[in-house]
Each structure stands twice: as C-alpha cells, then as structure tokens.
Amino acid sequence: MVLAAIGQICSSASMVHNLTQCQNLALKAVAAGAKALFLPEASDYIASSAAESVELCQDVSKSPFVRGLQKTAKEHALPINVGIHEPTEPPSNRIRNTLIWIDKDGNVANRYQKLHLFDLDLRPNGPRLKESDSTEPGNEVVPPYHTTLGKIGSLICFDLRFPEPALRLRRLGADVLLYPSAFTVPTGKLHWEILLRSRAIETQCWVIAAAQCGTHNGKRVSYGDTIAITPNGQIAGRLDRVENIEDEKEQAREPELLVVDIDLDSIKQVRHSIPLQRRLDVYPEV
C-alpha cells in the first residue's frame, strides 16, 4: 500500500495563512501514513490583481512559504509537491507558475513551469482573465521523476486541456500525472472531471489533481473537486466542490485532505489488458 495525501485549500494573498493551512494538512498526512502530500496550484498565494501577484512573488530561497514547507518536509520525512510562484530570470514584470517537489530531506528536487496559460477575453459583454498578463509560460515537458509512488509527471491546471504533454510524459515512463489547479467554477462544472478521466484513460496513468476551492478574494472563486483517478479512468476519491458561486461565503473554506492508495500494480494490469500501440511513425511529435 502506497498512500498519497491530496490537499484542497483556499489560498489568499497571505502567505502566512496559506502556509499554516498546508502545514496542518501535512500533519494530517503524516498521521494517515501517507508517503507524500500533493497541494494545489498557487498554494503560496492567490492575489487580487496581476500587479499584486508580481509584488508578492519571492525566490524560493527567501520565500517564507517554501522555506516553511521545506522545514515541515524534513521534520516529518514527508515529500511535498506544491504549486508556487517564482520570479523570472532576469526579473521582469511577469512571474513563473511552477510546481516543485520538496523531497523528504527538505530539498527542492524537481521543478516544472506551466506550459499553457489561461487567457480569456470576452469583452465587452464578458470577463477578461489573462494569465499571460503576469505569468511567463514554460517551454518544456519535464521528464518524470522517481518517487515511492512511481514515476511522476508534472503538469498544471490549463495544461489539462491538451493531451499532447500527457502523452509525452507517458512515453517518458510516467506512472502518475499531476494536475494541481485553481479551476474556475463554470469551466470546472463543464470539463474538470471528464478531462481528468480522459487523461487517465489515454495514458493509463494514475491522475492526481489537488485543487483550490472557494472564495479567494472579491474577484476569484475556485471550483475545487480535488480528485484521484485510476489508470482505468475510475474515480478513486474526491473532495467537495463549489456548486453555486452565489452560495459561497466571503470567508475561505477550511482545508481538506483526501488519502488514496496508489496501487502501482493496477498500472501494469491496465496496460496489459488494454495495450495501446501508438503509431508514432504517423504522429512522432506526441
């Protein structure tokens, strides 16, 4: 049995508050016997504007949020996977949306930068939400890395809408795909579950999606529905979600934890029973 703990939080602009949420979940994960904790996209903070997001961003060596989680990981020998913001190199008016793996010794051992950014502009009659206003896109699919939960491939939120990077990670040997997110409520209701299950089925990988949930500020509400999906596309466990934005309270939701047994043998069974022989001579770019 290899237990994964998957956290659901509601980040604000306060890194102190967000760190406390994540550390509390880490303690619960340790008590449950989990071998790793997976946290959502932008766990360090969610700002109310692009300018505030850039202002809050700190290098991992100085970030009290990251340093706090490194200390927690080392004290409890608990690897922690978490979505954060990092400055660009050289510093600019944009930042990086990244996913880091903090190993059991407290070291940042792996890093992935979000490839696909959520750019929406439906003016004059609809909203405008352009992630690229403040965020620099990544430019590579980072190979999977070895853990006690198998080989993990990292992707983030809007990457979910594109099968190509998931298929690439599968070709590189991934057993588990990560999609930490802060999905909007309307798109979450329409596409969240079906896209996650699709990525699991087509890659025959476990899918772990830690999600932000609830009201972050006066402008942002995240869908939630933290979920784990088997390599056969079945839901192994899930947490609460936002059903109606109008019903959400102004204060943030309490953090929640989902613990799931990542059965590595199920990967071999599914891939043996439904062999997928890809015609890479026809589409080698995948």
Automatic annotation (TrEMBL):
Highest taxon of the lineage: Eukaryota
CDD domains attached to this UniProt entry: nit (cd07572)
Enzyme Commission number: 3.5.1.6
Keyword field contains Ribosomal protein: no
CN hydrolase domain span: 2-264
Keywords: Hydrolase
Pfam families for the chain: CN_hydrolase
Classification via InterPro entries: C-N_Hydrolase, C-N_Hydrolase_sf, Nit1/2_C-N_Hydrolase
Keyword Hydrolase in annotation: yes
Gene3D superfamilies in the cross-refs: Carbon-nitrogen hydrolase
Record's protein name: Carbon-nitrogen hydrolase
Gene for this chain: NIT2
